Amino acid sequence: MNGIYYYLIAFAVIWILVGVFHEKLSTHGVDLNFPVIMWKTQRLRGLISRINNLSPRFWRWYMNIGVIVAFGAMIFITYTLVSTLPTVFDTPAVSIVIPGVEMPGSSIYIPFIYGLIALATVLVVHEFSHGVQSVGEKISIKSIGLLLFAIIPGAFVEPDEEELKSAKRTSRLRVYAAGSVANITLAVIALLLVSLVSMGIPHYFAEDGIAIDRVVEESPSNGILKEGMVIEAIDNQKVNDSESYVNIIGSFKPGDNVSVQTDQGTYSIVLDKNPSNESKGFFGIQANKHFELVNDSLGSLPWVLFELLELFQWVAMLNLGIGLFNLLPLKPLDGGYMLEILLSYKLSENQYKPIVNAISAVMAMIIVFSLVAGFL
User: Fold this and answer.
1) What values do phi and psi take at 241, rounded to 5?
2) What is the pLDDT of residue 3?
3) Contact 370, 94 (CB under 8 A)
4) Domain ranges of the chain
5) What's domain 206-312's architecture?
6) What residues are paired with 293 via a beta bridge?
7) Residues 6+ apart with CB under 8 A from 28
8) Which string of DSSP letters, residue by residue, matches 331-356?
């Protein structure tokens, strides 16, 4: 069963339980206002204050630089999104990614456990950073919590709206930039950890072919190839390493009847069109380097390096992707509010409000168009 059904069942159970026990749960900070369920607490406000108090000057200067980084990232992600429109039906720039679920139009599949952990780091780091910066700007935090918008989970830090509106523009810029800049920072740290772990792998392992990590549902390989198989050759072309594998599979076209030799037998597959490039053949497998342990001085412990490597890779990818997306000049995203504040330095409210609203509408249409194109 597709993983999306497990999510839908889980969210249905949550909605039913909250609906039935709403009165009791309301005394514990749970609020039901369809289509949103919110759980609010004030318990973590002290922790956020303590984090800020560790070095208020550091947080302020970190976010002074962060505001510049955020505007640069806003320009980058906006240009990237707009520039991909001509090829949107071949390679959609926007897609929905859910851990453990194969989404139509998305070439990215996020493993369930790694994906949940990575998404948790996105939410915690993003919202806590908003909170830490709010405290540093003398803006009160009313509550912290989790939410469920229909079937979309999220987290939030709720600053005092009146205090936020009356704060200086530089203060508001730092608060709005804090979440995405923290996500980008964590992505950089995760990439450094990926490099560090990668440096340790050759000390214990040697590359030994290509292994199938996952077979895409309803793909040419589904029901033929299996996870864990080691690919030894494709159409009698020897697969020695990842480089030879990429070169070989890139030479096939849709409709080609390909022979795949594995450690468990030889199989014939008729290729389909690649969702990312219809001129290329599509096997419907996700493969990775296959290694053998050549230095067993630590027993089987070095195998943990591969688990850490994949975890850090997803932490980096999701923090960077979601952090950049949140900086799009689109309200109610943080980037939309930042653009509004920037324009307010030169324009009146009657001038900059329509501009930001128009840009938000255009960006929203591009995103929806990209998502629809991916499904088609």
Assistant:
1) -155, -175
2) 67
3) yes
4) 39-145+152-197+315-375, 206-312
5) Roll (2.30)
6) 205
7) 39
8) TTSHHHHHHHHHHTTTS-HHHHHHHH
Helical segments of the chain, H only: 3-20, 22-26, 45-53, 56-83, 112-136, 161-166, 169-204, 242-249, 304-325, 334-343, 349-375
Question: CA-CA distance, 183 to 141, in Å (whole number)?
Answer: 21
Helix (H) or strand (E) holding 282: strand 277-282
Taking alpha carbons only, the member of 128, 183, 198 closest to residue 158 is 128
Distances (CA, A) of 81 to 47, 91, 103: 37, 11, 20
Q: Rounded to an integer, what distance in angstroms lies between the CA atom of residue 304 and that of residue 146? A: 32
- Give the pLDDT confidence score for residue 287 in this predicted structure: 84
Q: How far apart are CA 157 and CA 41, in angstroms?
A: 10
Q: Mean pLDDT in runs of 10 for the chain (376 residues)?
A: 73 89 87 85 86 91 96 96 81 75 69 90 93 93 84 83 92 96 97 95 86 85 89 86 82 88 89 80 86 88 93 96 94 94 94 95 91 74
- In the chain, the percentage of residues whose pLDDT exceeds 70 is 96
* Distance from C-alpha of 316 to C-alpha of 329, rounded to nearest angstrom: 23
Give me the amino acid identity at 259: S
CA distance 188 to 207: 27
User: How many CB atoms neighbour CB 160 within 10 A?
Assistant: 14
30 is written with which tokens? 């749970």
